[in-house]
Every structure is written in C-alpha cells, then in structure tokens.
Amino acid sequence: MGATVSPRNNCSSWPRILVLGLRSPEVGAQVRDILLNAGGFAVLLEDGENGLVDLIIPILTPRLDPRSVLTELRISMPGAQLLPILHKKHLSDGFDRPPPGVTDFLVSPVRERELLARVRRLLPGSVTEEIEGVRERLHESMALDRLRGADPAFQAVKQQILRIAKTDVMVLVTGETGTGKELTAQAIHYVSGRASKPFVPVECGALPPELFENELFGHHRGAFTDARSDQPGLIAEAEGGTLFLDEIDALAPGAQVKLLRFLEHRTFRPLGSPRSVQANVRVVAATNTDLSAKLREGKFRQDLFYRLHVVTLLLPPLRERIGDIGLLADYFLDRHAPADDRWRFAPDAVQALSTYRWPGNVRELENVVCQLVHMSSPRLIRAADLPWPTRPLQPIDGDSTESFRTTKARAIAEFEHKYLATLLQAYRGNISRAAHAARQDRRTFRRLIQKHRLDPSVWAGTR
Fold it and tell me: Does residue 240 come out as left (phi exceeding 0), alpha (psi in the -120 to 50 range) or beta?
C-alpha cells in the first residue's frame, strides 16, 4: 500500500516525513502532532515507497536494538534521512554513537523545539551544515545519564564535569573502586567539543613496563624483529579525542618518565621513527589510591604528580550517598530487568540496602541487583530476598573510621525513613492524612516518600 499523506500538507514539493511507531503508538501520535501542527510538515501515516520519503523518524522501545533497526532502515530506504528517537535505556546500554549514515538522534521524552530544530536541520532546503557525530545536548544526555544521584556532593561533581568539559585542562579523577571513575571520564569527553572523536581507555596496570612505549606510541615497520608493518599506538588512536589513563598509580618508574615527557610537550616518537609526532588529545587520569602517599613513599614521581594534579575530581563513596542507594537500586533494576516484567523493592529491602557499607560501591550494588534479576522471578523484593554472595549483610556501625558527615547523613536518612514508614502505617497509606499529621504539605511529603522509595500501597488495608 502506498503512503497516505495528511490532507493539510498534501504538496509533492514539500519534504515528507515518515513516523514509525515501532510498538510505541502514543509517542508516535505525539511526534506526528508536533510535526503537523507546530511544524507544518507533510507526515506520512503508513509505510511509503522508496524515494518518496525524505526523513524517517523511528521510535525505538527499550527492547529494540537501535543499531539493527537503523541499519535495516538504511538498507530498505537508502534515499531517506534517519532521525531515531531512543529510549534512555539505550544510552545506559552503551549506545554512544549512531551507525554509519545516521547523523543525529533524539531521546524520549520528546520536546517540541528540539524535534523541530533537528528535523529542519536534516530536511532538504533547511540548514545544510554537516552534523559531526551526535549533537551537544544528546552527548550530555548520554554522558550524564549513567551518573545517577541526587546527593548534593555528587551533584556538585556533575556540575564540575560540565564546567571542566568546556576546557582542555588535565583532569585527575580519584575515588574508591567502583565509584564510577571511567564513567566520569566518559562524561567529560562526551560533554566536551571532542565528543565526536575517540574515547580511548588505557588500563595502566595491565601494561607491562617493556611494552608501555610500544602500546602508547606505536611503532614503524622494522623497529624490531616482529614489526612487519606500521602500528599506531593508543595516543594516535585517540587523536582529536580523549585518552583515559586508568590506574595511573600502577605505572612503572620508566613508564612514568616517558608519560611525563609526552604530557609536557604533547609530542611522541613511534618506535623506529626518525621524527616526533604532535598529538591533539585530552588526557584524563584516574586512581583509587592516595597519590600523595605514593609520592612520599618514592613510588610516584613528583613532577608527574604535579603535572597530573591540575584539576582533581573526588568521587564520594556510596556509603556517603545513603540517600542515593534506593535511587540507584531502582535504576539498576529497571536497566537489567526485562522491560515487560514488574520488579520493585519493598521498604524493608531499601532499608537493608541503605545500611550496608558497600565496599565495592556502585559497581557492587549493580552486581547485587543484576544477580537478583537473573536468579529470581519478578516480584516485590524484600530484605530477605537480597543476595549477598560472599558475606552476610554488615550494617554500617559508625566506628571511628566513619566521617562525621557520613554518620550524620546516615542518622538523618534512617530517622526520615523510619518516621515516614511509621506514619504511613498509622494512616494505612493515606498520604494526605500522613502529611497533615507531619505538618507538611502534601507535595513535600510525597517527595520525601519518593526519596526513600516508600510505597504507600504496602500499608493500604493494614490494621
């Protein structure tokens, strides 16, 4: 069947847009309404023939694979531009850039101004400037979406990322294992002007000292016995983009000297090459150890330390972000559970998660949720259901190693959670009556309930 064009815009010379709902009819209707009423475009309501469609807007649900869908559309309708609308889950799953031939995309929920701006940019007769990679706002969405947290200290880190990304200053990211140092480095890269260029991570601890120079700088043919062809190094691979040096503290002394020389001059010489090469890369380093202590022990060069220590981002451990634990647990549950399954945490499960020390931080929390999803059936998760694969639950005990800020935050969070749960139980889940008893307006009280991941329906019908 041929394409049906909205009567309002039945004009053969006007660019035609095909909106593919792909199991998301509500979003499809919203997009069509914006294009018709606000944009005045000709919108095709059914599949059009090849050559009759100027722009295809496929709306992708969480269970669809963006790359396979977009690749298939490029093959079936090679003459049309593509502007996919992704779900946030696609960004969380690592969709960092569109496949060849797709120069832009949007993330739902769709905003009218952003949709129309991108459509006009892609359609014939509109702005024809070449779009390199993903647009700035989409980079920010992709980069910052995985850095979840409402804790003030964590929000301050995200604000620092936005400021730092606009510069090319050297950044050192510090924090315990599992706090998200590589995600932070990715965020800096994808919010910056280098977003369309490569992000190249380097595990410094996995580089043998004798191979460091070859891995980083590359070599020319004949540089050594097995060098049968030119081989670019990691710096060359990151040209124009960002080189992320993880576990920077693990570098051997000789490797530290070579890295320092590169950082000072931003030039390097591939093995076997007669000349140096100028590099255009941003360097972000990370460590989970105290570099100043390594410096005092003579295990890290002082000049390299000060070269790296221009701007430092300290990522707070999860035990100092107690209010974020429930939020992150829900996020990982939504990310790893099948889209059509219903999972949720009961209040006692959130309380149990919030009183655990989390030595593995956010990574450990994600592993626990992932294990729960793959080893259980969809249900309301209670404290007794939580999997602790290597040790029993160990509550935070407030010992002398715990900071005042951590102890205070934990005490406040525990008090709020218990107080809210007691009120909801007393008023059988009635938010209005519970808010009145607490002398809070209903909206504020509801925000507190959401903060602590409490479900009033749990107490509905209790006596």
Answer: left
Angle made by CA atoms 264, 204, 253, in degrees to the nearest 5 = 60
Amino acid identity for residue 228 in this structure? R
Query: Is position 463 within any domain?
Result: no
Place of tokens 């003459």: 79
**Helices within 77-176 (DSSP H only):** 88-92, 112-122, 136-145, 152-165
How many residues are present in the chain? Answer: 463
Q: Assess whether pLDDT exceeds 60 at residue 219.
A: yes
Cα dist from 429 to 38, 304, 350, 450, 455, whole Å: 43, 58, 18, 13, 8
pLDDT at position 374: 80
Contact present, 247 and 285 (Cβ < 8 Å): no
Sign for the pseudo-dihedral over CA of 327, 333, 336, 339:
negative
The model's pTM: 0.59
Domain count, the chain: 3
End position of a domain, from candidates 115, 134, 153: 134
Judge contact between 42 and 5, C-beta under 8 A.
Answer: yes
Has residue 2 been placed in a domain?
A: no
For residue 312, what are the β-bridge partners?
172
For residue 49, what are the contacts with CB-CB under 8 A and spacing of at least 6? 2, 3
Type of residue at 305: F
How would you write 10-75 as a 3-class SS string?
CCCCCCEEEEECCCCHHHHHHHHHHHHHHCCCEEECCCCCCCCCCEEEEECCCCCCHHHHHHHHHH
Domain that holds residue 22: 7-134
Task: Report, as an integer, the average pLDDT of 394-423.
Answer: 64
Q: What does the alpha-carbon distance between residue 315 and residue 154 come to, in Å, rounded to a whole number?
A: 7
Query: For 238-252, what is each residue's pLDDT tens digit?
Result: 999 999 999 999 999
Check which CATH number belongs to the domain holding 238 and give it. 3.40.50.300
Strands 231-232 and 218-219, sheet pairing:
antiparallel
Compute the half-sphere exposure of residue 411: CA atoms within 13 Å on the CB side of its CA: 8
Residue 113's Cα: distance from chain center in Å? 24
For residues 87 and 63, what is the distance between their CA atoms, to the nearest angstrom? 9
208 and 103 housed in the same domain: no
For residue 156, CA distances in Å to 39, 172, 311, 435 come to 38, 16, 14, 30
Partnered with residue 285 across adjacent β-strands are 172, 245
Confidence of residue 22 (pLDDT cuts 50, 70, 90): low
Per-residue tokens: 432: 């209005």
Cβ within 8 Å of residue 174, ≥6 positions away: 181, 286, 287, 288, 291, 312, 313, 314, 315
